[in-house]
Write a structure and sequence with these properties.
about 500 residues, mainly beta, 6-stranded antiparallel beta sheet, 5-stranded antiparallel beta sheet, 32 strands, globular
Protein backbone atom coordinates (compact mmCIF):
# COMPACT_ATOMS: atom_id res chain seq x y z
CA UNK A 1 0.00 0.00 0.00
CA UNK A 2 1.32 3.44 -0.95
CA UNK A 3 1.49 6.45 1.34
CA UNK A 4 2.81 9.92 0.54
CA UNK A 5 3.87 12.69 2.87
CA UNK A 6 2.14 15.42 0.91
CA UNK A 7 0.46 16.17 -2.38
CA UNK A 8 3.83 17.36 -3.64
CA UNK A 9 5.80 14.29 -2.56
CA UNK A 10 5.28 11.27 -4.81
CA UNK A 11 7.88 9.07 -3.09
CA UNK A 12 6.17 5.88 -1.83
CA UNK A 13 7.18 5.07 1.74
CA UNK A 14 6.12 2.59 4.38
CA UNK A 15 3.72 3.17 7.25
CA UNK A 16 6.66 2.90 9.63
CA UNK A 17 8.49 5.72 7.85
CA UNK A 18 5.45 7.97 8.22
CA UNK A 19 4.72 6.95 11.79
CA UNK A 20 8.30 7.58 12.81
CA UNK A 21 7.89 11.18 11.79
CA UNK A 22 5.39 11.48 14.63
CA UNK A 23 7.47 9.26 16.87
CA UNK A 24 11.15 8.61 17.40
CA UNK A 25 12.65 10.93 14.78
CA UNK A 26 10.12 13.72 14.99
CA UNK A 27 11.97 16.20 17.21
CA UNK A 28 14.54 18.54 15.73
CA UNK A 29 17.31 17.02 17.81
CA UNK A 30 16.23 13.45 17.15
CA UNK A 31 15.92 12.78 20.88
CA UNK A 32 13.07 11.66 23.07
CA UNK A 33 11.06 14.15 25.13
CA UNK A 34 12.97 14.77 28.35
CA UNK A 35 10.02 13.72 30.52
CA UNK A 36 9.59 10.34 28.84
CA UNK A 37 10.87 7.22 30.66
CA UNK A 38 14.36 6.09 29.66
CA UNK A 39 13.20 2.54 28.90
CA UNK A 40 11.54 3.65 25.66
CA UNK A 41 15.01 4.06 24.12
CA UNK A 42 15.40 0.28 24.10
CA UNK A 43 12.20 -0.37 22.14
CA UNK A 44 11.85 0.17 18.41
CA UNK A 45 8.19 1.08 18.25
CA UNK A 46 7.03 4.50 17.01
CA UNK A 47 4.00 4.44 19.32
CA UNK A 48 6.31 4.71 22.33
CA UNK A 49 8.18 7.75 21.04
CA UNK A 50 7.71 11.39 20.21
CA UNK A 51 4.07 12.47 20.15
CA UNK A 52 3.10 9.12 21.75
CA UNK A 53 5.87 8.89 24.36
CA UNK A 54 4.33 8.28 27.79
CA UNK A 55 4.65 10.67 30.70
CA UNK A 56 4.97 8.73 33.92
CA UNK A 57 4.78 11.61 36.41
CA UNK A 58 1.54 12.96 37.86
CA UNK A 59 1.39 16.75 38.17
CA UNK A 60 -0.81 19.57 39.46
CA UNK A 61 -0.39 23.22 38.51
CA UNK A 62 -2.43 26.39 38.99
CA UNK A 63 -2.28 30.02 37.94
CA UNK A 64 -1.45 29.01 34.38
CA UNK A 65 -0.29 31.57 31.86
CA UNK A 66 -3.00 32.57 29.39
CA UNK A 67 -2.64 34.32 26.05
CA UNK A 68 -5.79 36.20 25.14
CA UNK A 69 -8.67 36.14 27.60
CA UNK A 70 -10.44 33.12 29.02
CA UNK A 71 -14.23 33.54 28.94
CA UNK A 72 -15.45 34.20 32.48
CA UNK A 73 -18.60 32.18 31.82
CA UNK A 74 -16.54 29.06 31.03
CA UNK A 75 -16.70 27.19 34.32
CA UNK A 76 -16.02 23.48 34.44
CA UNK A 77 -13.36 21.05 33.32
CA UNK A 78 -11.98 19.57 30.11
CA UNK A 79 -10.88 15.97 30.61
CA UNK A 80 -9.05 13.71 28.17
CA UNK A 81 -8.17 10.02 28.52
CA UNK A 82 -5.51 8.04 26.70
CA UNK A 83 -2.93 5.21 26.75
CA UNK A 84 0.17 5.96 28.78
CA UNK A 85 2.38 2.99 29.68
CA UNK A 86 4.07 3.22 33.06
CA UNK A 87 6.20 0.12 32.54
CA UNK A 88 8.13 -1.37 29.65
CA UNK A 89 5.98 -3.89 27.73
CA UNK A 90 6.82 -7.60 27.92
CA UNK A 91 5.46 -8.40 24.43
CA UNK A 92 4.99 -6.50 21.20
CA UNK A 93 3.51 -3.13 22.10
CA UNK A 94 0.33 -1.78 20.57
CA UNK A 95 -0.63 1.82 21.28
CA UNK A 96 -3.99 0.68 22.65
CA UNK A 97 -2.20 -1.25 25.43
CA UNK A 98 -1.09 1.77 27.49
CA UNK A 99 -2.35 2.42 31.02
CA UNK A 100 -5.17 4.95 31.21
CA UNK A 101 -4.15 8.48 32.16
CA UNK A 102 -6.57 11.38 32.42
CA UNK A 103 -5.46 14.97 31.83
CA UNK A 104 -7.68 17.70 33.23
CA UNK A 105 -7.93 21.45 32.81
CA UNK A 106 -10.27 23.21 35.23
CA UNK A 107 -11.68 26.63 34.31
CA UNK A 108 -13.07 29.06 36.86
CA UNK A 109 -13.85 32.76 36.45
CA UNK A 110 -11.23 33.38 33.77
CA UNK A 111 -8.47 31.25 35.34
CA UNK A 112 -7.26 27.69 34.72
CA UNK A 113 -5.45 24.91 36.57
CA UNK A 114 -4.07 21.58 35.29
CA UNK A 115 -3.64 18.07 36.64
CA UNK A 116 -3.05 14.54 35.38
CA UNK A 117 -3.54 11.18 37.07
CA UNK A 118 -3.29 7.52 36.16
CA UNK A 119 -6.52 5.53 36.36
CA UNK A 120 -5.77 3.18 39.23
CA UNK A 121 -7.25 0.05 37.68
CA UNK A 122 -6.92 -3.37 39.28
CA UNK A 123 -4.24 -4.30 36.77
CA UNK A 124 -2.37 -1.03 37.27
CA UNK A 125 -2.37 -1.53 41.04
CA UNK A 126 -1.15 -5.10 40.72
CA UNK A 127 1.73 -4.11 38.43
CA UNK A 128 2.69 -1.34 40.83
CA UNK A 129 3.32 -3.99 43.47
CA UNK A 130 5.71 -5.91 41.22
CA UNK A 131 7.04 -2.82 39.38
CA UNK A 132 7.00 -4.93 36.22
CA UNK A 133 4.45 -5.57 33.51
CA UNK A 134 2.32 -8.68 34.01
CA UNK A 135 -0.01 -8.58 31.02
CA UNK A 136 1.01 -8.62 27.38
CA UNK A 137 -1.28 -6.77 25.00
CA UNK A 138 -3.75 -6.95 22.16
CA UNK A 139 -1.13 -8.33 19.76
CA UNK A 140 -0.72 -11.44 21.92
CA UNK A 141 0.28 -14.08 22.64
CA UNK A 142 -2.54 -14.48 25.19
CA UNK A 143 -2.07 -16.00 28.62
CA UNK A 144 -5.48 -17.07 29.91
CA UNK A 145 -4.05 -17.93 33.33
CA UNK A 146 -3.54 -14.26 34.20
CA UNK A 147 -5.93 -12.74 36.78
CA UNK A 148 -8.92 -11.21 35.03
CA UNK A 149 -7.96 -12.70 31.68
CA UNK A 150 -5.22 -12.25 29.07
CA UNK A 151 -5.83 -8.51 28.60
CA UNK A 152 -5.46 -5.83 31.23
CA UNK A 153 -8.48 -3.54 31.63
CA UNK A 154 -6.65 -0.23 31.27
CA UNK A 155 -9.70 2.09 31.33
CA UNK A 156 -7.73 4.16 28.83
CA UNK A 157 -10.36 4.95 26.20
CA UNK A 158 -13.32 7.10 27.10
CA UNK A 159 -14.80 9.32 29.82
CA UNK A 160 -18.39 9.95 30.83
CA UNK A 161 -19.89 12.10 33.58
CA UNK A 162 -22.90 10.95 35.55
CA UNK A 163 -24.36 12.03 38.88
CA UNK A 164 -21.41 14.26 39.72
CA UNK A 165 -18.78 11.62 39.03
CA UNK A 166 -16.37 11.08 36.18
CA UNK A 167 -15.93 7.52 34.86
CA UNK A 168 -13.13 6.00 32.79
CA UNK A 169 -14.02 3.19 30.36
CA UNK A 170 -12.17 0.71 28.15
CA UNK A 171 -12.90 -0.04 24.49
CA UNK A 172 -12.61 -3.83 25.04
CA UNK A 173 -15.39 -3.65 27.66
CA UNK A 174 -14.44 -3.63 31.31
CA UNK A 175 -15.16 -2.12 34.70
CA UNK A 176 -16.45 1.40 35.28
CA UNK A 177 -13.73 3.29 37.16
CA UNK A 178 -15.08 6.29 39.11
CA UNK A 179 -12.85 9.36 39.39
CA UNK A 180 -13.11 12.44 41.58
CA UNK A 181 -13.85 15.21 39.03
CA UNK A 182 -11.96 17.82 41.02
CA UNK A 183 -8.77 15.82 41.65
CA UNK A 184 -8.89 12.88 39.16
CA UNK A 185 -8.09 10.47 41.98
CA UNK A 186 -9.52 7.00 41.34
CA UNK A 187 -12.23 6.09 43.85
CA UNK A 188 -12.40 2.58 45.28
CA UNK A 189 -16.00 2.14 44.18
CA UNK A 190 -19.36 3.88 44.12
CA UNK A 191 -23.02 2.99 43.77
CA UNK A 192 -22.97 3.07 39.97
CA UNK A 193 -19.87 0.93 39.41
CA UNK A 194 -21.02 -1.50 42.11
CA UNK A 195 -24.46 -1.80 40.48
CA UNK A 196 -23.14 -2.87 37.08
CA UNK A 197 -23.06 -6.68 36.85
CA UNK A 198 -21.61 -6.75 33.33
CA UNK A 199 -18.61 -5.43 31.49
CA UNK A 200 -19.24 -2.00 29.95
CA UNK A 201 -17.74 -0.72 26.71
CA UNK A 202 -16.40 2.73 26.07
CA UNK A 203 -18.83 4.97 24.16
CA UNK A 204 -21.81 3.94 26.24
CA UNK A 205 -24.03 7.02 26.55
CA UNK A 206 -25.79 9.19 29.12
CA UNK A 207 -29.07 10.65 27.89
CA UNK A 208 -28.83 14.37 28.79
CA UNK A 209 -32.62 14.69 29.04
CA UNK A 210 -33.47 11.66 31.20
CA UNK A 211 -30.16 10.94 32.94
CA UNK A 212 -30.43 7.30 31.85
CA UNK A 213 -27.16 5.47 31.25
CA UNK A 214 -27.44 3.49 28.00
CA UNK A 215 -24.64 0.94 27.78
CA UNK A 216 -23.38 -2.07 25.89
CA UNK A 217 -20.58 -4.56 26.25
CA UNK A 218 -19.09 -7.28 24.08
CA UNK A 219 -16.69 -10.19 24.32
CA UNK A 220 -15.23 -13.28 22.71
CA UNK A 221 -17.64 -15.71 24.35
CA UNK A 222 -21.43 -15.97 24.13
CA UNK A 223 -23.40 -13.90 24.74
CA UNK A 224 -21.28 -11.82 22.36
CA UNK A 225 -23.09 -8.58 23.22
CA UNK A 226 -25.09 -7.27 26.14
CA UNK A 227 -27.24 -4.15 26.13
CA UNK A 228 -28.73 -2.28 29.04
CA UNK A 229 -30.09 0.89 30.61
CA UNK A 230 -29.60 2.13 34.15
CA UNK A 231 -32.26 4.59 35.33
CA UNK A 232 -31.42 7.44 37.71
CA UNK A 233 -33.45 5.66 40.43
CA UNK A 234 -31.14 2.64 40.17
CA UNK A 235 -33.48 0.41 38.14
CA UNK A 236 -31.36 -1.76 35.85
CA UNK A 237 -32.54 -3.25 32.55
CA UNK A 238 -30.30 -5.66 30.60
CA UNK A 239 -30.67 -8.11 27.74
CA UNK A 240 -28.31 -10.41 25.85
CA UNK A 241 -28.08 -9.69 22.12
CA UNK A 242 -27.85 -12.55 19.62
CA UNK A 243 -24.92 -12.23 17.20
CA UNK A 244 -23.44 -14.80 14.79
CA UNK A 245 -20.16 -14.82 16.69
CA UNK A 246 -17.57 -12.54 18.31
CA UNK A 247 -17.71 -9.03 16.85
CA UNK A 248 -15.80 -5.79 17.35
CA UNK A 249 -18.42 -3.04 17.85
CA UNK A 250 -16.95 0.22 19.10
CA UNK A 251 -19.88 2.58 19.64
CA UNK A 252 -23.65 2.74 20.02
CA UNK A 253 -26.30 5.15 18.74
CA UNK A 254 -29.03 6.62 20.93
CA UNK A 255 -32.32 8.41 20.22
CA UNK A 256 -35.08 9.22 22.74
CA UNK A 257 -36.89 5.92 22.03
CA UNK A 258 -34.28 3.63 20.48
CA UNK A 259 -30.68 2.50 20.56
CA UNK A 260 -28.70 1.40 17.50
CA UNK A 261 -26.41 -1.63 17.91
CA UNK A 262 -23.57 -2.40 15.52
CA UNK A 263 -22.60 -5.67 13.83
CA UNK A 264 -19.76 -5.12 11.36
CA UNK A 265 -18.19 -7.69 9.02
CA UNK A 266 -14.91 -7.36 10.92
CA UNK A 267 -14.18 -10.38 13.08
CA UNK A 268 -11.54 -13.00 13.76
CA UNK A 269 -11.57 -16.74 13.26
CA UNK A 270 -12.27 -18.24 16.72
CA UNK A 271 -10.80 -21.64 15.75
CA UNK A 272 -7.56 -19.99 14.62
CA UNK A 273 -7.56 -18.09 17.89
CA UNK A 274 -7.90 -21.31 19.90
CA UNK A 275 -5.04 -22.99 18.02
CA UNK A 276 -2.57 -20.11 17.91
CA UNK A 277 -3.63 -17.64 20.60
CA UNK A 278 -3.62 -14.96 17.90
CA UNK A 279 -6.69 -12.81 17.39
CA UNK A 280 -6.47 -11.34 13.89
CA UNK A 281 -9.60 -9.42 12.84
CA UNK A 282 -10.41 -9.72 9.14
CA UNK A 283 -12.71 -7.65 6.95
CA UNK A 284 -15.23 -9.92 5.23
CA UNK A 285 -16.23 -7.97 2.12
CA UNK A 286 -19.04 -10.37 1.25
CA UNK A 287 -20.82 -9.90 4.60
CA UNK A 288 -23.14 -6.91 5.05
CA UNK A 289 -22.90 -4.37 7.83
CA UNK A 290 -25.89 -4.68 10.16
CA UNK A 291 -27.41 -2.11 12.49
CA UNK A 292 -29.90 -3.30 15.09
CA UNK A 293 -32.58 -0.88 16.26
CA UNK A 294 -33.83 -1.78 19.73
CA UNK A 295 -36.38 0.09 21.87
CA UNK A 296 -34.56 1.70 24.77
CA UNK A 297 -35.98 -0.85 27.20
CA UNK A 298 -36.34 -3.61 24.61
CA UNK A 299 -35.10 -7.19 24.59
CA UNK A 300 -33.25 -9.29 22.05
CA UNK A 301 -36.57 -10.28 20.47
CA UNK A 302 -37.37 -6.62 19.79
CA UNK A 303 -34.23 -5.88 17.75
CA UNK A 304 -34.84 -4.94 14.09
CA UNK A 305 -31.73 -5.60 12.01
CA UNK A 306 -31.04 -3.54 8.88
CA UNK A 307 -28.36 -4.42 6.31
CA UNK A 308 -25.98 -2.00 4.57
CA UNK A 309 -22.86 -2.05 2.45
CA UNK A 310 -19.88 -3.71 4.20
CA UNK A 311 -17.78 -1.24 6.20
CA UNK A 312 -16.53 -0.44 9.67
CA UNK A 313 -17.18 2.51 11.96
CA UNK A 314 -15.42 3.57 15.10
CA UNK A 315 -17.47 6.58 16.15
CA UNK A 316 -21.05 7.74 15.85
CA UNK A 317 -21.65 11.46 15.42
CA UNK A 318 -25.34 11.45 16.37
CA UNK A 319 -28.68 9.69 15.79
CA UNK A 320 -32.27 10.89 15.71
CA UNK A 321 -35.81 9.93 14.76
CA UNK A 322 -37.33 11.46 11.65
CA UNK A 323 -40.86 10.34 10.85
CA UNK A 324 -40.77 6.54 10.51
CA UNK A 325 -36.99 6.55 10.12
CA UNK A 326 -34.08 6.27 12.48
CA UNK A 327 -31.12 8.27 11.16
CA UNK A 328 -27.48 7.69 12.10
CA UNK A 329 -24.51 9.89 11.19
CA UNK A 330 -21.04 8.43 11.73
CA UNK A 331 -17.46 8.22 10.50
CA UNK A 332 -17.48 5.34 8.00
CA UNK A 333 -14.41 3.35 7.03
CA UNK A 334 -15.19 1.76 3.65
CA UNK A 335 -12.43 -0.83 3.81
CA UNK A 336 -10.73 -1.65 7.14
CA UNK A 337 -8.68 -4.47 5.58
CA UNK A 338 -5.32 -5.05 7.20
CA UNK A 339 -2.65 -4.45 4.56
CA UNK A 340 0.76 -5.02 6.16
CA UNK A 341 3.73 -3.53 4.33
CA UNK A 342 6.81 -5.80 4.31
CA UNK A 343 9.00 -2.72 4.68
CA UNK A 344 7.56 -2.29 8.19
CA UNK A 345 9.15 -5.56 9.32
CA UNK A 346 8.01 -7.03 12.62
CA UNK A 347 5.76 -4.02 13.25
CA UNK A 348 3.85 -4.45 9.99
CA UNK A 349 0.73 -6.10 11.46
CA UNK A 350 0.43 -3.58 14.28
CA UNK A 351 0.93 -0.57 12.03
CA UNK A 352 -1.55 -1.76 9.41
CA UNK A 353 -4.20 -2.40 12.05
CA UNK A 354 -4.01 1.04 13.60
CA UNK A 355 -4.73 3.18 10.53
CA UNK A 356 -7.59 5.66 10.61
CA UNK A 357 -9.50 6.52 7.47
CA UNK A 358 -13.10 7.60 7.57
CA UNK A 359 -15.55 10.15 6.24
CA UNK A 360 -18.95 11.40 7.38
CA UNK A 361 -21.76 9.09 6.32
CA UNK A 362 -25.52 8.87 6.79
CA UNK A 363 -27.59 5.70 7.26
CA UNK A 364 -31.42 5.68 7.32
CA UNK A 365 -33.61 2.83 8.61
CA UNK A 366 -37.38 2.88 8.09
CA UNK A 367 -39.09 1.08 10.97
CA UNK A 368 -42.39 0.74 9.07
CA UNK A 369 -41.34 -0.37 5.59
CA UNK A 370 -37.95 -1.90 6.42
CA UNK A 371 -36.33 0.20 3.70
CA UNK A 372 -32.80 1.50 4.05
CA UNK A 373 -30.64 4.14 2.42
CA UNK A 374 -27.13 5.43 2.91
CA UNK A 375 -24.94 8.17 1.48
CA UNK A 376 -21.55 9.79 1.98
CA UNK A 377 -21.66 13.33 3.33
CA UNK A 378 -18.07 14.26 2.45
CA UNK A 379 -14.72 12.77 1.44
CA UNK A 380 -12.53 14.27 4.18
CA UNK A 381 -10.51 11.89 6.37
CA UNK A 382 -11.70 13.07 9.77
CA UNK A 383 -12.64 11.34 13.00
CA UNK A 384 -13.22 11.69 16.76
CA UNK A 385 -16.49 13.63 16.36
CA UNK A 386 -18.04 15.69 19.14
CA UNK A 387 -21.38 17.50 19.30
CA UNK A 388 -23.16 19.78 21.74
CA UNK A 389 -24.22 17.27 24.44
CA UNK A 390 -27.73 18.64 24.78
CA UNK A 391 -28.60 17.70 21.15
CA UNK A 392 -27.62 14.05 21.50
CA UNK A 393 -30.42 11.90 20.12
CA UNK A 394 -32.07 14.82 18.33
CA UNK A 395 -31.53 16.20 14.85
CA UNK A 396 -28.51 18.46 15.08
CA UNK A 397 -26.58 20.61 12.67
CA UNK A 398 -22.96 20.82 13.80
CA UNK A 399 -20.16 18.38 14.53
CA UNK A 400 -16.59 19.08 15.64
CA UNK A 401 -14.00 16.66 14.25
CA UNK A 402 -10.28 16.43 13.62
CA UNK A 403 -8.58 16.05 10.27
CA UNK A 404 -6.16 13.10 10.15
CA UNK A 405 -3.24 13.28 7.70
CA UNK A 406 -1.68 10.06 6.39
CA UNK A 407 -4.14 7.88 8.37
CA UNK A 408 -1.94 8.06 11.49
CA UNK A 409 -4.01 8.01 14.73
CA UNK A 410 -3.97 11.10 16.96
CA UNK A 411 -2.02 13.17 14.43
CA UNK A 412 -4.88 15.65 14.45
CA UNK A 413 -3.48 18.58 12.49
CA UNK A 414 -6.68 20.63 12.10
CA UNK A 415 -9.94 21.21 13.95
CA UNK A 416 -13.06 21.06 11.77
CA UNK A 417 -16.58 22.34 12.38
CA UNK A 418 -18.91 20.64 9.91
CA UNK A 419 -22.43 21.78 9.10
CA UNK A 420 -24.11 18.41 8.56
CA UNK A 421 -27.03 20.01 6.71
CA UNK A 422 -25.09 22.09 4.18
CA UNK A 423 -21.69 20.42 4.13
CA UNK A 424 -19.94 23.72 4.83
CA UNK A 425 -16.84 23.39 6.97
CA UNK A 426 -14.85 25.75 9.14
CA UNK A 427 -11.22 24.72 9.58
CA UNK A 428 -8.43 25.78 11.91
CA UNK A 429 -4.95 24.38 11.19
CA UNK A 430 -2.78 23.98 14.27
CA UNK A 431 0.41 24.70 12.36
CA UNK A 432 3.54 22.72 11.43
CA UNK A 433 4.37 20.00 13.94
CA UNK A 434 1.42 20.81 16.23
CA UNK A 435 -1.26 18.19 16.90
CA UNK A 436 -4.52 18.36 18.82
CA UNK A 437 -6.87 16.25 20.95
CA UNK A 438 -10.54 15.41 20.76
CA UNK A 439 -12.42 18.68 21.23
CA UNK A 440 -15.59 18.68 23.37
CA UNK A 441 -18.23 21.40 23.34
CA UNK A 442 -19.19 23.50 26.38
CA UNK A 443 -22.46 25.42 26.08
CA UNK A 444 -22.51 29.08 27.05
CA UNK A 445 -24.86 29.67 30.02
CA UNK A 446 -28.26 30.69 28.71
CA UNK A 447 -27.43 29.69 25.11
CA UNK A 448 -30.35 29.35 22.71
CA UNK A 449 -28.41 28.27 19.61
CA UNK A 450 -26.83 24.84 19.15
CA UNK A 451 -23.32 26.20 18.58
CA UNK A 452 -23.37 29.00 21.16
CA UNK A 453 -20.51 27.96 23.37
CA UNK A 454 -16.88 26.93 23.40
CA UNK A 455 -14.73 24.13 21.98
CA UNK A 456 -11.31 23.28 23.41
CA UNK A 457 -8.36 21.09 22.46
CA UNK A 458 -5.08 20.09 24.08
CA UNK A 459 -2.30 20.59 21.54
CA UNK A 460 1.35 19.53 21.64
CA UNK A 461 4.13 21.10 19.59
CA UNK A 462 6.53 18.35 18.54
CA UNK A 463 9.28 20.86 17.84
CA UNK A 464 9.84 21.62 21.52
CA UNK A 465 7.33 19.23 23.21
CA UNK A 466 5.37 22.10 24.78
CA UNK A 467 1.63 21.69 25.34
CA UNK A 468 -1.24 24.13 25.45
CA UNK A 469 -5.01 24.19 25.52
CA UNK A 470 -6.73 26.20 22.80
CA UNK A 471 -10.18 27.57 23.62
CA UNK A 472 -12.38 28.49 20.64
CA UNK A 473 -15.64 30.33 20.20
CA UNK A 474 -17.63 27.46 18.67
CA UNK A 475 -19.38 29.77 16.23
CA UNK A 476 -16.07 31.04 14.81
CA UNK A 477 -13.63 28.11 14.75
CA UNK A 478 -11.72 29.33 11.70
CA UNK A 479 -10.86 32.60 13.44
CA UNK A 480 -8.64 30.73 15.86
CA UNK A 481 -8.65 30.45 19.65
CA UNK A 482 -9.94 33.23 21.87
CA UNK A 483 -7.51 32.04 24.55
CA UNK A 484 -4.44 29.83 24.81
CA UNK A 485 -3.63 28.21 28.16
CA UNK A 486 0.03 27.24 28.56
CA UNK A 487 0.49 23.91 30.32
CA UNK A 488 3.86 23.44 32.07
CA UNK A 489 3.91 19.71 31.30
CA UNK A 490 3.69 17.67 28.11
CA UNK A 491 0.35 16.14 27.11
CA UNK A 492 1.03 13.13 24.83
CA UNK A 493 -1.33 11.87 22.14
CA UNK A 494 -4.50 10.30 23.48
CA UNK A 495 -8.04 9.15 22.87
CA UNK A 496 -11.35 10.60 24.03
CA UNK A 497 -12.41 13.67 25.95
CA UNK A 498 -15.41 15.21 27.68
CA UNK A 499 -16.53 18.50 29.17
CA UNK A 500 -18.00 18.54 32.66
CA UNK A 501 -19.76 21.69 33.80
CA UNK A 502 -18.91 22.91 37.28
CA UNK A 503 -22.58 22.65 38.23
CA UNK A 504 -22.39 18.87 37.75
CA UNK A 505 -20.13 18.38 40.75
CA UNK A 506 -21.29 21.31 42.86
Amino acid sequence: EIYTLSLHDALPISMLDITNRYGKTLSAAGTRPSDAPAWIDTIDNPYLHGLYAPVTQEHSAGELKVDGKLPEDLNGAYFRNGPNSRLAPINRYHWFDGDGMVHGLWFENGTARYGNRYVNTRGFAQEQKTDAAIWGGVLGPFDFKLPGGPLKDTANTDLISLDGRLYALWYESGKLYPLNPQTLETLDSDALSAAMPHRISAHSKVDPNTGEFVFFGYGDRAPYMRYGVLKPDGTLHTTDITLPGPRRPHDIGVTPRYSILHDFPVFFDPEFFKKTGKRIPLFHKDVPTRYGVIPRFGTDADVRWFEFEPCYMLHVVNCWEEGDEVVMIGCRNPDPSLSPNKADGKLAAMLSGIKLRANLHEWRMNLVTGETSERALDDVNAEFPMIAPHVMGHKNRFAYLHAIPHEIPATFDALLKVDIHTGKTQRYDYGPGVYGSEAPFAARPGATEEDDGYVMSFVTDTRDWSSRCLVFDAQHISEGPVATVHIPFRVPAGFHATWMDASEWA
